[in-house]
Design a protein that fits this description.
single chain, flat, 83 residues
Length: 83
């Protein structure tokens, strides 16, 4: 049974996310800059997807590689510590 149109929830208008690295050319993706990379991982240590972070495809690929490299060198955790 379908609900009437007025009870359906519609998504409010949200601003289009802009790639942070395309808009600010002074920002560089580097695996040693763990403070910048921490904005793009969750508390559990997972990499945020492109639709959430707002990055373009090119910079999301670079970011993913940098996060993985930083994990390997032990600058970022693979997972969160259990409590």
């Amino acid at each position: 049974m379908r609900r009437p149109q007025d009870t359906r929830r519609r998504r409010e208008y949200t601003r289009k996310k802009v790639c942070r690295f395309c808009s600010d050319s002074s920002l560089r993706i580097d695996y040693k800059n763990y403070r910048l990379l921490r904005y793009f991982i969750t508390e559990r240590g997972k990499i945020l997807p492109r639709r959430i972070s707002g990055n373009c495809a090119k910079h999301q690929r670079e970011l993913t590689g940098a996060i993985k490299r930083a994990r390997h060198v032990a600058l970022l955790p693979f997972t969160a510590l259990p409590k």
